[in-house]
Amino acid sequence: MKSPTPDSELLSDLARLLRPAGGGLYTVSTGRAEQLALQRELYGAADAADVDARWREALAAVPRARVAILGIPSDCGAGLMRGAAYGPQGVRQAALRLCPAFQEIAAREGIVDVGDVFVIPHLLHDDMLSDGQRDAAREALYGDADVELPVSPLSMAERVVDRLLALNADLRVFVLGGDHSVAWPVVAALARHAREPWAIVHPDAHTDLLPARLGVRYCFATWAYHANELLGRGGRLVQVGIRASGRDKEHWERTLGVRQFWSDEVRARGTGVIDEILAHLRTIGVRRVYLSNDIDATDAAAAPATGAPAPNGLSVAFVRALIQRVGAEFPLLGADVVEVAPPLGAPEDARRTTEVGAWYMLDSLAAMVGVATLTP
Asked: Measuring CA to CA, which of 90, 133, 264, 372 is 20 to 30 A from 156?
């Protein structure tokens, strides 16, 4: 039997794969001051050196933590319009506006921000790279072309979540994307560590159920297909808010064994749909849930700054109720908020969308630690 990896080695890997929160986007001038201001606020730090020290303290706290916040600022797996790479930074900033005491509350509840996967923005998954490109990227990221570490954001994120769960088997992971492809590495890692039957509850305007898109196996339009296969089908992928699909509900449920609640059903029946979702999860024997929350499930009038906004979507109140009620009945293995794209649209669009994403973040974290709210 292979011996467990020592904690010191796991933490060393994390320190190489990650950067302090807000630092996953590589910049040396434009945007650097804004990054540093956010980092100082998030970590209660005086300067860049203090940010680094506080971030390393957060990593060292993972074995005792209840929840880890992880940013994956990659939108290389997106489709129509880019901009979700700025989602982690924008949602964190909005969360601090909505909850100025967030750092103190997080410390009290055992929530640590382990930072961001460091993203080379031209890469997506290591399976798509030549040996030469992997070596060049390793040299750039780690100063060593021979080191056995991944270099693409999805591959790095999977390694990070594996390392986090190896350090703390009871840890819950909250992810800030990034486009929706970033859910795949999290789900893939959770599947290796989950000890009870689990399901994915997936608010989205789109099904994301293609086996591949233009020959690409893992991207925003395919992650749910592969997650559903990983779960073994059987209704363990529950999609909520669908309204932009080339196939109807009957097709997806019949061919792939997913369970869907389209947006028109929700708009007609309201929170009664949540009762049905919970009953379905109980019936199939689920014990835990991962909640993957695409911001475009929410109506475009409320959250317009995203790559593929769609009208006639879910209300913010419904999505918040869904998070709260699912999290109250089923322990959350993890959750995410993805496809928030602050650069798209007017500044007011960005403000409204990042604040909606921040409410979803705060609700998800509250559910993970078993409190009604994180706001005072």
From this structure: 90
